């Protein structure tokens, strides 16, 4: 368990605080390069978000709540806005005629700055907030993308913001990891075959050799290295933690080994449905990424075919998922 490993480095704060603070440090460094290192944002996610927004448009209850009080305009809260992808997607879909206000919240000031640049054309229609206690008013739409897996307790985090949401509000939840993939023996068998055949390629890249050399000499600092150093300097640890441990705190709900799966780590939409019973109702879902962490857009025809076969056979067991919820 990660708690046992953490004790070796003398953490000065409880796990919940460590996860929050290490995430801030990590994303402080990563913000400028985030989009360049996550190609799936612009290649894989847009069609999924179009489907989620189309599902939203089919929900008369949400739209009626807005129109009954303010005309057709919506109030949108983008929780963990990052560099502004999902906010920009919603703004482009709804347009100025359908949005009264859109609030981008992110605890990372550096991520907020990237959002400001991304969304500059929308002017004062967008507000930017870095402190959760500064969020005011009620919202008809909650938007998240690749946020829940950074949280120690994502269920409680979503329940805690209920006072900010209007009756019948919708939640567009994009791009989260799913533990169902790692619990599926056939999916894992295909993943292991792929990595056994192609795992060596990661050592053959001159770029990766160069990066490893520059990192070892201190000429470059990756986000996990930076967060480890800064966490130690800020006395979050008595001993500097390794970068791999920082990465596990940052991506807390991503499953990497069987012991984490058995320990209940990770997200499963069926478990979320149970946890949110009486509060949120799941009305649409899609899972994808049937070669786990290996982006299918970069795979050979054979492995894309394998991923497609797994998708048809186990449509709910992709390594990533998108969900649309409605507040009950």
Q: Can you tag this structure with a few keywords?
A:
328 residues; alpha/beta; Rossmann fold; 7-stranded mixed sheet; 7 strands; 16% strand; globular
Strand content: 15-25%
Task: Order the strands across the largest sheet as they lie in space.
Answer: 3-2-1-4-5-7-6
Number of contiguous helices: 16
End-to-end separation in angstroms reads 36 Å
CATH architectural category of the largest domain? 3-Layer(aba) Sandwich
Q: Which bin fits the share of residues in helices?
A: 40-55%
Radius of gyration: 20 Å
What order do the helices and strands follow?
Answer: HHHHHEHEHEEHEHHHHHHHEHE
Derived from helix and strand composition plus strand pairing, the structural class reads: alpha/beta
Low-confidence stretches: none
Q: How many discrete structural domains?
A: 2
> What is the chains' assembly state?
single chain
Q: What is the H level of CATH, i.e. the homologous superfamily of the largest domain?
A: Vaccinia Virus protein VP39
